[in-house]
């Protein structure tokens, strides 16, 4: 009977590990910004599964670095602010990026600057036509 309980515990642990690797453990996160199309956010899990989110550029109001206090320390993360369709000055949603990898502030600043360059090009492009 003890061996049956031990076998069940091992089996449940293995199932839990497989679920963790397939749905929770993110191995890599990437961000692709194309000014004329939109922003693609891809998360690769440890199991090899990939999850992709695409945000049309027309929905993007801005990209910002936000800060939060977590466990007595300040953490920084990149966010996409989505424009409210009913109120062009408003924000309908905040989409946080790189939640698993938690890059350092200096890395976030580099990504932020690149995103802002692309957003600025997008804002000035329709005016020059």
UniProtKB/TrEMBL annotation:
Pfam families: PIG-H. GO terms for molecular function: transferase activity. GO terms for biological process: GPI anchor biosynthetic process. Residues 30-99 form the Phosphatidylinositol N-acetylglucosaminyltransferase subunit H conserved domain. GO terms for cellular component: glycosylphosphatidylinositol-N-acetylglucosaminyltransferase (GPI-GnT) complex. Keywords: Membrane, Transferase, Transmembrane, Transmembrane helix. Pathway: Glycolipid biosynthesis; glycosylphosphatidylinositol-anchor biosynthesis. The keyword Ribonucleoprotein does not apply. The chain crosses the membrane at residues 6-24. Belongs to the PIGH family. This is PIGH acetylglucosaminyltransferase. It comes from Sylvia atricapilla (blackcap). The gene is Pigh.
